[in-house]
Amino acid sequence: MYKISQRRYLGNKNRILDFIAEIIKEEVGNFNSLCDIFSGTGVVGEYFNTKNKKIISNDLLYNNYVSLNAFLNPEPFNEVKLLKIIDDFNKLDVDESNYFSDNFGDRYFSMKVAKKIGYIRENIRDQFVNNFISQKEKNILLTSLMYSVDRIANTVGHYDAYIKKDIKKQELVMKMLEIYNDKNSKNEVHNKDANLLVRDIECDVLYLDPPYNSRQYCDAYHLLENLSLWNKPEVFGVAKKFDRTKIKSDYSKISAAESFDDLIQNAKCKYILLSYNNMGEKGNSRSNAKISDEDIIKSMSKRGEVKIFEKDYKAFTTGKSKHSDNKERVFFVKVKV
Questions:
Q1: I need a surface site. Which of 61, 62, 140, 144 has the fewest CB within 10 A?
Q2: pLDDT (0 to 100) of residue 250
Q3: For every one of its 337 residues, what pLDDT tens digit does the chain have, with 9 covering 90 and above?
Q4: CA 114 from chain center: how many Å?
Q5: What is the rounded distance in angstroms from the CA atom of residue 302 to the CA atom of residue 304?
Q6: Ramachandran region, residue 157 (left: φ > 0; alpha: ψ -120 to 50; beta: rest)
Q7: Which PROSITE patterns does the record match to this protein (predicted)?
Q8: In terms of Cα–Cα distance, which of 294, 286, 283 is closest to 252?
Q9: Alpha carbon distance 107, 164 (integer Å)
Q10: d(Cα 32, Cα 173) in Å, to the nearest integer?
Q11: CA 38 to chain centre
């Protein structure tokens, strides 16, 4: 089975979950609800997910929204049926070309594997349209496919480019997900701009993990976004990306500090935790932080006294930069009433 954490993802928080938990234990204590408003893969929300808590997850990218629903949405599903479908998918040998193989075969995957991925994605769509699987079951199958694709992709962990060497012979093998639906009864999952969503929700703990720099997540994961949406858009360039104008994050633009301040001032919560590392001006220009410490403290101070916690942390980079003194920081505020 795939666990929610078994996906390579830029800036993932797997290694500092205990650190975040320690801060919440000391500074917050018991709480009833947590909003992970830049969820990514959703590991933070899943870490705190229990029967008596409400976890609100959100991500701007649809492929993450699909996975968040698969793991954290409370809707029921038929595991026996899904295991049979997955087993049938794994036994497939596909010869026909399709949208996916035409665009991504012999690039991110071998042509044989790309044909299989495209066939499976189309089959998932057909089963959903014909009411053989529910929305939750569709999300589980899509998430299994994306996690399986990620394991064999001819990349360094994201899809900004593919490795221009002979593609290793690897098979696509899907697995069921490890889902604890009994913990999900109070949960919500959203696919919205964080600055819009924050105006519509309330929670005890608001956890923020926005993009740090100019590297857009929709660029790094365009292939998975394309695969999950399955609108079959025209793609272009060497990396075969589609038009991502509508899903560019403001937190990777020059206006990031302004967007951050807007979010902080409109948050309806008791506590705010922000994860933000100290890349500063150490990496290449695309890696430099878009929001300065001064901007962070200025915005958060309007809501209460700011505390800063630090932990040494080896970041997941693109492989071109090394930072031996990189630290993950958590900025904390108890919101003044």
A1: 62
A2: 86
A3: 999 999 888 877 888 899 999 999 999 999 999 999 999 999 999 999 999 999 999 999 999 999 999 999 999 999 999 999 999 999 999 999 999 999 999 999 999 999 999 999 999 999 999 999 999 999 999 999 999 999 999 887 788 888 888 788 889 999 999 999 999 999 999 999 999 999 999 999 999 998 876 678 888 899 999 999 999 999 999 999 999 988 888 888 888 899 999 999 999 999 999 998 755 444 444 455 678 899 999 999 999 999 999 987 555 444 444 444 567 789 999 999 7
A4: 23
A5: 6
A6: left
A7: N6_MTASE (PS00092)
A8: 286
A9: 8
A10: 38
A11: 8
| Block residue for tokens 């519509």 | 200
CA angle 59, 328, 39 (to 5 degrees): 10
271 contacts: CB under 8 Å, gap ≥ 6: 24, 27, 28, 31, 204, 205, 206, 332, 333, 334, 335
For 10, 14, 100, 115, the CA distances from 104, given in Å and listed in that order, are 22, 29, 6, 9
Which domains does the chain possess?
14-334 (3.40.50.150)
CA dihedral 134, 139, 142, 148 (to 10 degrees): -130
Tell me the DSSP string of 67-124: HHHHHH------HHHHHHHHHHHHT----S--HHHHHHBTTTB-HHHHHHHHHHHHHH
From the CA atom positions of the chain, what is the Rg in Å? 20
Task: Show the tokens assigned to 98.
Answer: 């399709």
Alpha helices in the chain (DSSP H): 17-27, 43-47, 62-72, 79-90, 99-104, 111-129, 135-152, 194-197, 217-220, 222-229, 256-266, 293-301
Torsion, Cα of 20, 25, 26, 31 (10° steps): 110
pTM for the whole structure = 0.91
Angle subtended by helix axes 135-152 and 62-72, to nearest 10: 120
Residue indicated by tokens 């001032």? 265
Q: Amino acid identity of 217?
A: Y
Strands 306-312 and 327-334, by their bridges, are: antiparallel
Which tokens is 214 given? 């100019």
